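Hey, can you fold this?
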Amino acid sequence: MYKAAADGFAGTPNMMIEIGGTYDLEVVKQTDFGVFLDAGDLGEILLPKKHTPEGLSPGDIVEVFLYSDSEDRPIATTQVPKAEVGEFAYLEVKENTPVGAFLDWGLDKDVLVPFAEQHRPMVLGKSYIVFLYLDNQDRITATSKIDKYVSNDPDHGFYAQQAVELIIANSTEMGYKAIIDQSHWGLLYNDDVDERISFGQTIQGYVKHVRADGKIDLSLKSGQQIRDNYSQVIEDYLRDHGGFAPVHDKSPSEKISGLFGMSKKQFKKAIGGLYKQKIIAIEDDGIRLV
């Protein structure tokens, strides 16, 4: 994707440009083997001809990802990687070599996971959750030792009902550990999962609750979706039982749970919504469809 200079597109002025990120850069020189881009402090970087959009010329702006070639020189591509430096991704092993495993991350050149950065020996054809970082020679490298890169900082700023992106990273007796928005751990309880999910899957979820210690409970449904589901359960029960259920907001929790499989708090919120919509009436001995 690129924009001609004549349309006033400004690129990325005053932005620090680093290997491992995506930027809008200006074409400064055209050659037989590609174009050179102005990458600020990194100097002029080659965008090879095979990745150069047709019609690109000096003064145009093009969106590129920056990485290092086989000789550790900065190079640009219009290919889109599955992850950038500072991000997690679920990637497949394409080759095992004497220096480590190479994973497919969407570019012509695969990314290396050195043996020292493998949580366990990687198997050809299998996929692993990895984190991308720059090594001490500014080469993009991956590691499957991800724990040290996922934050447990309680001052994270996440809040209840917030929509987030989840990477399913592990399973426990209680449920699934997930990486939230490429940064923090969260827990998705088994009781909140009513669909098949798998290791490495990226899925949209919601912050269900932030505990006092900052730990994050997750859900695959928003609060409104959950309330709608509970309301539907109650309405379906009433239609299947002559329009009446012998419970109301003052009934014992055990009776409500036994009848509908939800807590008293969830039940009260659900029937409150149904009452406001004039779908049910709340009577002395129970609730009834209107």
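Oh, and this one too while you're at it.
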Amino acid sequence: MRPSDQLHILFKKYLDNTSSLEETQSLMNYFQLDEDQEALKAIIIDVLEMEDESYATNAAIAEVLAKVDRDLFFQIKGSIEVIPVRKNKTLKLWLQIAGAAAVLVVAFTGIYFFNSQSKKVEKVDTVAPIAVHDVKPGDFGATLTLANGRKISLANASKGVIGREAGLTITKSGDGRLVYEVDENIADPNTLNTLSTARGETYQVRLPDGSLVYLNAASSLTYTAALMQDGKRVVKLIGEGYFEIAKDKQHPFIVKTNRQQIEVLGTHFNINSYADDAVEKTTLLEGSVKLSASGNSKVLKPGQQAKLYDGKIQINETDTDLAVAWKNNEFVVESENIETIMKMIGRWYNVEVIYIGEKTNQRFSGKVSRFDKLSKVLEIVESTGEARFEVKGRTIYVSK
């Protein structure tokens, strides 16, 4: 049997979920070699072309493959004019094909792990099970601090009007979202409100101008009752927030962090500005934003991410789905180190992370639901063989 035939069989078994751990590892090992990248590309195309009931354009495969590895997709794209796909194939098949494509870049971007809906890529050697006193995932909740110092726990608050002050009516909607209504004739423009999420909480707020803000765990948003300051809509963010800004050309929307200022008119963007992260990230999904920091200014275009480090702004093209995955209740990482992953886990599950000995320098990529319990998330990461965990109470001990 020719090597290419054997490879084709292994790949088909992988997609059918019938390959053993040894066969999966063999497939991984084979495609870590640079000279075999063309072979994998050909096999992916062959598998897709075996189906002939309906057809999808390059754009159809792009949605999945580009999320796994953008460079690989553009390599394949040039070789395919029309890709046949069986009508009754589900998204699961596409995810599996994307997972197989990711094998190409394991040697360069690190270890890949997948959620329970996809096939996990694991090392052949088994790993001892994690001793876990399980921890539930985070939930929908926050605390609203009014100007008079009154604190309202939004997780426990009943639906309907939860507060009135200085021309401001605050309502908890049927879906749990916070909604503001302002009587501009009597509202005190200097009245400050702060919406804050603890570790293990996330929340949404509809601001007085109609803008929608999602807050990630351990974050806060501060704003005046009327939202206006010197003719501009102004909020201050600590932590991470996703913004859908209502259009108002007469009143630019300003987001201030401890390191920079972001000015927009009407747009969708994400800001990651945790104090314990060295880099602050701003990712633009649509519209345009202007970033200013330490006397420097940059304009961001859709599909770009700005990284602010030591007062300098660097802009790169990015996969925006990665930046807003948390809003869709997923952990999605691409070539991230163990510290970044554990910070995400620590904030969402409200646990402390302690490292024992030397940290792994491996990088990880993959997707896990934020609805999963802590034990499942850790088991998936540990299955790569590149990290080990021990959980005691609300403390995770991490070792190689």
